Amino acid sequence: MSGWPEPVTLAGPSATLVPLAPAHHDALVEAARDGELWRLWYTSVPSPEGMAAEIQRRLALAAAGSMRPFTVLDASGRVVGMTTYMHIDAKNRRVEIGSTWTAKSAQRTALNTQCKRLLLGHAFEQLQCIAVELRTHRLNTQSRRAIERLGAQLDGILRAHMLAADGTVRDTAVYSITAAEWPAVRSHLDWQLARPRD
Fold this sequence. Notes:
Layout: E1 10-11, E2 15-19, H1 25-33, H2 51-64, E3 67-74, E4 79-89, E5 94-102, H3 110-126, E6 131-137, H4 141-150, E7 153-163, E8 169-178, H5 182-194
Parallel strand pairs: 5-6
Antiparallel strand pairs: 1-2, 2-3, 3-4, 4-5, 6-8, 7-8
């Protein structure tokens, strides 16, 4: 399972995920400025000044085999954020979808659902994962609602799990989708993506 999972481009009607590259720096800075996302205390989005270091951090984790980072493009090809497979466990065929952020103008659109459909589909159908995790700050209600809308189940809360950038202690809500649940979740996501939007 060396190099599992391999770099891949995943594409759908509403989003495309391409392997993260240093050349994406300037476009990612503009995406983060859309909503000044780094100012949100309960999440970790790189500031414009910190974007180069964050790209290098993710690429170093990719080289070490613990992360597969993506740059997120919207339907028009505009860079709107980042996401990853992280905490990769090749032996047990498990990944976490995380370290995700999306420009404010692309939030509450089909983009997030499309990204998760692409990542989950690849994880279960090509990588043969037994489970996929999603985690977020216990107090990030917007993120928790989005994860629950995917069909993920709450496994529990890791209390006093880690220190946030502002020095507060983060409780982490841990969700997962198992391989047995994937067919129903896939049907649900496909329905969400196909239904008319207001």
